[in-house]
Amino acid sequence: MRILFITSSRLGDAVISSGAIERIRLAHPAARLTIACGAAAAGVFARLPGLERLIVFEKQRLDGHWLSLWSRAVRDRWHMVVDFRGSALAYGLWAGQRVIVRGGRRPGRRYAQIGSACGFEPPPLPVVWTAPADHARADRLVPPGGPVLALGPTANWAGKIWPAERFIALAGRLDFARIAVFGGPGPTERAAAAPVLAGLPGAIDLVGAVSVAEAAACLARCALFIGNDSGLMHLAAAARVPTLGLFGRSRASEYAPAGVRAAFVAAPGIEGEAAMELLTVDAVRAAVVALMGEPVPA
Fold first, then answer.
1. Cα–Cα distance, 225 to 76 (Å, whole number)
2. Residue 39 · residue 58 · CB < 8 Å
3. N or C end of the chain, less CB within 10 A?
4. Neighbours of 264 (CB within 10 A)
5. Which one, of 220, 151, 155, lies nearest residue 184 by Cα?
């Protein structure tokens, strides 16, 4: 039995789809799974049980990436094809069952839209897949000690980034023994995180230092995550860390973190159009209190 999942090119969207993938995987424990996704999302699935094949494809001119993916999948017979991208590709493959998750913007949480399209009510929350080696490395990077505040000061575009000086000011007003700063690989992520790291000497620097699975294992050792709307925010919520997402020029009604203990705080103004500079330290601290019950680690 083979199942093909066509998922996102972005880390956050891939994490959002993980709950539905896990529910289908558990329903077919002997199935051999293939994931088709972009390079930035591939790490989400590195530890997926039952993974037989990972097809990494990137956007090409004139939608050539769909033809490339079709050519790599058409030789197989699939028990099920689940397309989270809402493309027509599944109809060009031999499949016993097809599940197409419609794309485009519409009301409601994205993880719930995916769950409903797959027939799951209530929709499953996102999950993370890790291995003992990931937790062993996390134990070295975030060793046992006082509670850790995790900060995610980066995002995939500048309009989603809360000012660095406010992350620093907020950290000073929360009573945590240690701070860890997370971020993805590459110079853009390093540049976004650098002012926060400079303003918080002694913080654990995990920017670009870990794989997706290792990041999830490190996050699981933290008492609270506070960060911009990003893939890292979704990963923290999926790792069951108390998670507070910061929103301004993105839609919390669709992309707020989904987890057992997750919340968001948004800049005042029209959803998706408010400047992150309008989100104050006091507002974020109040949201921490509401989430945690007190402004210190639970």
1. 42
2. yes
3. C
4. 18
5. 155
Q: Note if the pTM is more than 0.85.
A: yes
What CA–CA distance (Å, rounded) separates 97 from 82? 8
Q: Find the length of the chain.
A: 298
Mind listing the pLDDT tens digit of every residue in the chain (298 residues)? 999 999 988 999 999 999 999 999 999 999 999 999 999 999 999 999 999 999 998 776 666 677 888 888 999 999 999 999 888 888 999 999 999 998 777 889 999 999 999 999 999 999 999 999 999 999 999 999 999 999 999 999 999 999 999 999 999 999 899 999 999 999 999 999 999 999 999 999 999 999 999 999 999 999 999 999 999 999 999 999 999 999 999 999 999 999 999 999 999 999 999 999 999 999 999 999 999 986 544 4
CA 289 to chain centre: 23
For residue 208, give both structure tokens: 């670009």
CB atoms within 10 A of CB 187: 9
**DSSP character at residue 30:** T
